[in-house]
Amino acid sequence: MRIMLVGGRYQAHFLTKSLVAKRHEVMIVNEDLDWCKFLTNAHDVVCVCGDGTKPFILDDAGAADMDAVVALTGKDAENLVICEIAKKLFKVDRTLAIVNDPKNLMVFTRLGVDKCISATEMMSDVIESETVFDEVKSYLPLENGRVVCLDVQLSARSLICGRALRDAELPAGCIVACLLRGDSDELVIPNGDTVLEAGDKVIVMSTQAAAEQVAEMVHGKR
Fold it and tell me: What is the mean pLDDT of residues 193-214?
């Protein structure tokens, strides 16, 4: 893929390293001339020094030929402008942006940015799941947090342990997609008659609100 990274410092550095290692073609746009020189020397990529919110700069960098444009600046307004220009003026298929203020996620999505990443929101989710519920082994927000994938392990104290799935009284807005059972991690696709057992590793897809209720039930609280 041909990918343009606009703005950012160490995010651009580490992303470039990863993308080049995977044999993607990377173009960098950055206002900092010294940083452009560093990235060029470190990764043997082409850098254009300039303001990525200016259409002529993105044009000079070949935005129209890119498969994806990634906005990495520290200002949400600039990241939104970069994605809007790339999508509407240069017809780039995929736009991605760092969103520094989680409150702006919905605005980015409504205005057509294909993928928004909020480091603040992701860190908050990880901290909450790691510090409050030991049984939550993985907590993965999807679709800007509207959907959550939970990987939980049942213990004897879990309120849903020992119940058939139809009787587990799980909250509306969630489904048990599958579970792994026993030392061999036998994969079970559950139905209403499946009895949940201590030690089961359960994959749950749910809304954000339902995820919190599920985590409490797994932990042994209502």
Answer: 86
